Amino acid sequence: MTDTLPDDNTLTEAGLAPEARTGRVLLIACGALAHEVLAVKRAGGWDHLDLQCLPANLHLWPDRIPAAVEAAVAEARHTYQQVFILYADCGTGGLLQQKCRDLRVEMLEGPHCYSFFEGNDRFAEIAETEITAFYLTDFLVRQFDAFVWRPMGFDKHPELIQMMFGNYDKLVYQAQTDDPVLDAKAQAAAERLGLAYERRFTGYGDLAVEIERIAAR
Amino acid sequence: MADEDDIILSELNDEELVLQMHDDLYDGLKEEIEEGVNILLERGWAPYDVLTKALVAGMTIVGADFRDGILFVPEVLLAANAMKAGMAILKPLLAETGAPRMGKMVIGTVKGDIHDIGKNLVGMMMEGAGFEVLDLGINNSVEKYLEALEAEQPDILGMSALLTTTMPYMKVVIDTMKEKGMREDYIVLVGGAPLNEEFGKAIGADAYCRDAAVAVETAKTMVARKHNTL
């Protein structure tokens, strides 16, 4: 199992293949969670967990996530006793949950990573009062241009910012780590979108809780 | 287009101009669309023909290419922006000249959801297809939907959601309509990125519409069927 990660662009476009299949349990995660999953794994010393990541940019086409997960699970079953899917619903409208049920594998609870980093219960509580918030995580702050600015066409057509973000009023940076560089970058992203800025430290939230639960099996 | 600057729209014949307007819509060229609309009107075209043959037909190509993954949201938005500019010229004229009326729709994004790109596209394409559209905007409670239904008496209620967390609210609206005995009075169409046909059926909608073009076709078919049964 590798403990060093490729750069964020690779995690976005290609994901992470498990280089050495040494563990008993495979975590199939979104590439946007690679750093966080490895951090939690290292902190717990759980060498029996291997990590494979699917390209983070699948989020630009959520309808492709269930099929990508299915293919990864099919391959992993030759090697691993247990497979766990580190995706929430992620805009699949319940289709990923259905797919995981069919494949008899478990997945994360919650609608998306913003929710499980905050803690699903806490996120549900604040959701109603925060509907005009746009969220970024550590990964998304680092990949803001690749995930937001360029795919939305803002680099070529800044007039689209108002059309797409006109109903938002603030950008909430859900910080998994304390990093002043990311804080500044998130604040700059808020300014570029014309939104107010708020930084909220979440740590790894329910992601850490779930990985710990899997590791204890 | 590489030779865009060389094309003088007023020098094209009607057929060429309409095709050029389809290209210009595809490229999201707002000013060119406004110019094209004005030229066709000056040549004596009926506003309804300009709308359907130049704008709606062009936007249908955009919609098909979006569905096929050739175009993406930014391109569609730019095209929509261009179409909107053309429609702004045509709208008052359509009212004067009495364009065909297909029916009436109340549309809005559900409570807790502020996303309106898809909804706005649907509203615009429905207007282009001859429907009168009352747009309730974003973050609509069940009360607001019902109030609009009672006040406007539309043929269709359209609900939109982008979030997995907000799409179940559509069922709240439909269930309330059932409780009040008014569900069968309206065609209920739902749409939004995380929805699918199964979800539409499960919540009791009449149809899930995967994009604006499908919404228009579904609306036309269902309104015609509804009127035939009256």
UniProtKB/TrEMBL annotation, chain A:
Residues 53-207 form the DUF1638 domain. It holds the Pfam family DUF1638. InterPro entries: DUF1638. This is DUF1638 domain-containing protein. It comes from Gemmobacter lutimaris.
UniProtKB/TrEMBL annotation, chain B:
The keyword Transferase applies. SUPFAM superfamilies: Cobalamin (vitamin B12)-binding domain, Methionine synthase domain. Residues 102-230 form the B12-binding domain. GO terms for biological process: homocysteine metabolic process; methylation; tetrahydrofolate metabolic process. Coiled coil: none annotated. GO terms for cellular component: cytosol. CDD domains: corrinoid_protein_B12-BD. PROSITE patterns: B12_BINDING, B12_BINDING_NTER. One of its GO terms (molecular function) is methionine synthase activity. Belongs to the methylamine corrinoid protein family. This is 5-methyltetrahydrofolate--homocysteine methyltransferase. It comes from Gemmobacter caeni.
